[in-house]
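Blackboard transcription, Thursday session:
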Amino acid sequence: MTDLVERCTNAGLKMTGQRKVILRVLGEAEDHPSVETVYERAKAQDSSISIATVYRTLNLLDEMDLVVRHEFKENFSRYEVNMDHHHHLIDLESGEVIEFQNEDLEELKERIANELGYDLIDHRLELYGRKIKKKK
Amino acid sequence: MTDLVERCTNAGLKMTGQRKVILRVLGEAEDHPSVETVYERAKAQDSSISIATVYRTLNLLDEMDLVVRHEFKENFSRYEVNMDHHHHLIDLESGEVIEFQNEDLEELKERIANELGYDLIDHRLELYGRKIKKKK
DNA sequence: GTAGCTGCAAACTCTTTGCAACTCT
DNA sequence: AGAGTTGCAAAGAGTTTGCAGCTAC
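(Written on the board underneath:)
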């Protein structure tokens, strides 16, 4: 994934066995795993990994912007590799997370911030919905 | 505030002294107080109030939709009386919370959800910015 | 060799909860 | 009277951290 490992070593991080495993787990994830989930997947590859290391690593990666931390309306965080910018729609029934992008939205939020006299540094947009049932 | 007390008693809640105080604190708040802040303000009016009651009351009010719970990028919740619908821009330097409304945005998020095959039930939009310094 | 990393367990923060006493209605 | 509410303290959940030993560089 645009070599995560490389970006870490370039940043001066030691490439320990644990970090390699965690990076691999993140790179291969097609969902938005929680710390617990990353931990379980990592443990499957190296059973000695502790959850403290997972927390520490994810925090590091977040600070380096290699990873994006999401705090949906749940009481824990989820992570994903920081690739393209997008937003999320959370299916309230299944918990499934759907990604989407929208150009109008990008413009709009920038414009709103500017009109209020602010530079937009960060933002958060999440939609929570229920699948529309087709009538038969 | 469109009588919070009345809306509570109508819903069958007992109007205890503690609840009156908490409702008054919420009604008078012009900011987005945390549980801790609501607790402190309430305690100033009735020192016997416990924080457990504040938590319980805010949860009740949230379920009844009398209040809106916000979880900005902080590790605690903030509350405000549910009046008009709006969004928030958080000043990353001062922590100040600025409210705004935007019609285009309302349409857009509805449209995005529908295009993805979802009924929009809830959402969250927060902007995080830094005040633009005028050049002299 | 050594700065940085790790596992473990304890500590922390915010929030919830069991229980016995109390209080609106 | 009695269901609902409260304060207290303990428990929960997720996350962070101090420390001694280990490891990549």
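Lecturer's comment: Residues 87-129 of chain A form a domain with the Dna Ligase; domain 1 fold (CATH 3.30.1490.190).
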